[in-house]
Every structure is written in C-alpha cells, then in structure tokens.
Amino acid sequence: MLKEERQERELVDRLVLKEPSAWKELYDAYAGNLSVVGSRYLREKEDVRDILQNSFIKMFHSMASFEFRGKGSLRAWMTQIMVHESLKHLKQQAKLDFTTDVAEVADFVSEEEPDLELFTQKELLGLIQSLPLGYRTVFNLYVFEQKSHKEIAMLLGIKESSSASQYHRAKQVLMDKLTELKTLKLDAT
C-alpha cells in the first residue's frame, strides 16, 4: 500500500472513530476543493458555505457506512455528497428550471475546441457560473461528475433528451463566451 493511500486509510479509520482532530484535518484538507465544487452549482458564497457545512454534517453521520476503495475514494465520496447537497438546495429553493432562459441557441456546436490554456481557472469558473442554472447544472454533472444523460435525467427528474439538449446548449453558450473573452484578451494586448 502506498504511503498516501495508507495515510488516507488511517484518516478514514480515525474519522469513523469520530476523532475531532481527524475531522479538523479532513476539513482543512478538503473544504477548499469542495467549495469549488459547490461554486460550480451555486452562485452565492453564503449558499456554498451553507451547503459545505451541511455536507460535512452528512459526512459525519454517514462515515461509518463509507467504504474505502483506495486512494481518492474518500475525495470522490465527499464530492458526491457536496454535489447532491447542492442539487437538493437548488430543488428546495425551486431554482432549478430547465426552460431556455437565454436566447435560443443554434443546435450546431462548433467542432473546434477552444485552447483552455489561454484562460485562468477563475475565468473558466466565472463563465460556467454565468450559465443559466439548468444549463450549468447539467453541464457540471456531465463534465465534472461524469454522469451520463440517463443518470442526469434520473437525478433531476427530467427527460434524457432534455439533459442532452441542456448540455449542448450550455456547451455552445460557453464556446461563444470563450471566443468573446479570447477576443477581449487579444485586443487588450
């Protein structure tokens, strides 16, 4: 067993025993990354903080049922909880709407992939956050959580074709915004 994997396993064992120092260590190590995950779904910092807190509470209560499957499994489990708590929050706030709330986008999506290295992580996150909520939610689930359209449809209570449509529209809007941002950057130099 690799050193990192052994350390993660030992941390999980301490978490199951509800050691306060283990929970502080977990929070310190993962809160930042989980906040970024929440920020992909939620625009308001207060909402992200609330969901992060709710997620850690849920982790605390369900840690005994967590099954360690090797290095990275703890992070994946925590990310999944953060995503589900974010979606639950959006549904409770009745903010999740899958109508087209921007100008109708053409079905044609450019085949040319943008050079993402031209943009900072903050710029990319900002562009994702600027997407309409339905687009953003489906895009995040498909791209970052690697869910299929069938899984997304089940999670969100929508048709599989609606998931695919929302994803393609989100991708087109992002491509347009990336092109616009690239132009602005080139003009500034």
- Largest sheet descriptor: none
- Binned, the helix content reads 55-70%
Mean of residue pLDDT values: 88
Structural class: mainly alpha
CATH superfamily of the largest domain: RNA polymerase sigma factor, region 2, helix turn helix motif
What is the CATH topology descriptor of the largest domain? Rna Polymerase Sigma Factor, Chain: A
Number of helices: 8
Account of the protein in words:
The chain has 189 residues and is mainly alpha-helical. The protein has two domains: 3-92, Orthogonal Bundle (Rna Polymerase Sigma Factor, Chain: A); 116-188, Winged helix-like DNA-binding domain superfamily/Winged helix DNA-binding domain (Arc Repressor Mutant, subunit A, Orthogonal Bundle), CATH 1.10.10.10. Helices cover 70% and strands 0% of the residues. The protein contains eight helices and no strands. It has helices spanning 3-16, 20-41, 45-62, 73-92, 121-130, 133-143, 149-156, 160-188. Helix 1 packs across helix 2 (20-41), helix 2 (20-41) packs across helix 4 and helix 6 packs across helix 8 (160-188). The longest helix is centred in the last third of the chain and has 29 residues, at 160-188. Residues 100-109 have low confidence and may be disordered.
